[in-house]
UniProtKB/TrEMBL annotation, chain A:
Name of a matching Pfam family: PAC2
Subunit structure: Forms a heterodimer with PSMG1.
Keyword DNA damage found: no
Superkingdom of the source species: Eukaryota
Underlying gene: BnaC03g40710D
GO process terms (BP): proteasome assembly
Protein name per its UniProtKB record: Proteasome assembly chaperone 2
Annotated family: Belongs to the PSMG2 family.
Organism: Brassica napus
Summary of the function given for this chain in its UniProt record: Chaperone protein which promotes assembly of the 20S proteasome as part of a heterodimer with PSMG1.
GO cellular component assignments: cytosol; nucleus
Record carries keyword Chaperone: yes
Keyword entries, A-Z: Chaperone
Automatic annotation (TrEMBL), chain B:
Annotated stretches, region: Disordered: 1-27
Top-level taxon of the source organism: Eukaryota
Protein name as annotated: Proteasome assembly chaperone 1
Amino acid sequence: MEFVVEEGKRVDEECSTLILPALSIGNVGQLAVDLLVSSTGADRVGYLDDPYLLPCVGNDAYGPLPCGEISLPLEVYESPSTATTLAQQRSPVAKGMMIKFAENIADFAASSGKKHVIVLSSLDFQRLHHNLDMSRGPQVYYLSNAEANGRDEHCERLGFGRLNEYDSEGRCWKYLCSVFDENCKEELTFPSEDELEDIDYYPSLPFAALFSAFKARGLKVTCLLCYCSEGDNIPDAFLLTRRSRRRFHSFLVLV
Amino acid sequence: MEDVLTENPPPSRFFQEDLNNFASPPPEPPLPSPFILFSSPKPELPLKPSLLIIALSSPSLHIFHSCLPSKTLIGTLIIPELPFSGNTVEPSLQDKSCNIYSLSDNNNENSVLLISVQLPVSPERSNLVSRLLIGQDIVPERVIILDSIQSRNFRGRLSPDEALAAKLETSSEKKAAATSRMNLDYFPSGSVIDGLSASLLSRCQLKNIRGTLVVSWPEFDPSVVRFVGGLLKSIVPGLDNKSVGKDLEMYSSRSGLKKDAWLDSDLYT
C-alpha cells in the first residue's frame, strides 16, 4: 500500500489518531467518516493506493454542487484542530483479500506514527441473539485491545457497551490473531465458508480483521459498533459519529 | 416503492461475500501478470507521448477503427487468462484485443498514442493493467479515457433516447488552461464509475498526470458516435471526420441494439 501525498499538501505528524471505516451493513462506518470529514473541516492530504482495493472514481463527495474534485477509492484527510487523520474507503476489497488489505493498512498506520486507531462499523441487527437494552436509547458498543478481554475502562466511563460476543479464544478470533502476528507459533487452519457458524459472524467481519491487524502491529485500537438493518442508515451514522467524537476527544485529553 | 428486502441492493450496498474475511481467496497459483508486447524493432522505453487516448466505449472504438487510417500498430497488451481464439491477423474491431497505436508525426514532437481496449478487464485485474498502461512503459503528459456510463452505478434515470456525456478530471487537468480542457459538465456527485476506466483515471491522479475521463450514454447510439467524433476532432491529428458517420446503422437504438462481435460469447468463436 503506497501513501501518495496530494500535490502541494504536507502531512501533519500531530494528527496521530486515525479514524477509518470498516465495510459493514448499511455502509454506516463510511457514512460516519463522511460526517466526520465534513464536520471537522478536514482537508484531504493524500491517497492510499492498494492493489486489493477495487477501483472507483467519482465527483466531490462533500460540496453541495458537483465541482469536479475527483474522489478516489481510499483517501486520507487531516483535521489538525482535532489532531485526527481520517481515512475514507469508497469501494470494496477484492473477494478473499480482506486480510491482506488489513495488513497493508496496519502497516501504513504503524509506519506513519499513528498512536491510536478508531474503527467505525455496524453490525447486523438480525444476527443479534439477545435483546438490546434500549432504555437509554440506541447503544454504541466497543471492542478494544486495552485489556485482553476487549474491555477498556475509558470506553466504560463513556457509557459504551462492551461487545460481549468477543471471545479471544474463539477459533476465528485466534485464527485472525495467528495470521497477523509474526511471532505466533500456532499453526491454525483457515476456516472454510461451509464450516462457519453463528458464533463466527463477528470475527468474519472486516472490522475484526482490522482490529486484529492493528493489534498485531502494537497500535492501540478501539472499534466502535452499532447494530442496524439495511435501509436509511443516516441516523445510525449520526449516532456513531457523535459517540466517536466523544471517544477521540477524551483520548486527546489523556494524551 | 421498492422493497428493501427483495430488491437488489443499490450500488453502495454490499453482498455478504464482500463483508466476509473468510471468503475464499483467488485460487493458487496466482494468474500470470499482464504484459505489453511491443512490435519489432522495440521502441525506446518508456514511451512519452504528449497525449494518450484510451478507448473503452463502443462509440470510441468505432471511431478509432473507422476514422484513423494513418495509425500504426506498435504493441499489444496481453492478459494471459483471456484467449485469442477468433482474433484476426490484421487488427479488427471484432477482435478481443488491447492494441496500442501511434499517431506520431514525423518529428515525434507531438506524439499521440491510442489504446483500443476491446477485451473485458475484470475489476480485480484493473489495477495491474492500468499500472502497465500508465506510468511504466508509457508515461504520457496527458490522458483522455473514453468510456460509457454504467447504469448500475448511476443514481438517477438514464433514458435510452437521450444522449448525455460528462467528465471527471484529475487535479492537474483542472488547473490547466480552460481552453485546453474538455468543455463538458462534470459527472454528478453520488454516482460512481468503476472498472478499468476508473483505475486508469486514478493512476493519472496518483501520478499527477493531466487526465480526463469522458463517459457517455447510451452505449450504442449514432448520436454518441458523432459526439465522440466531434470531441476528438480538435485533438487527434488525422481524424477523418467524413468517416465518423459511416456504418452508424449498427448503433441505431430504434432498430434494436446490435452489440459488437467482441462482446459475443466465447462459445461462438
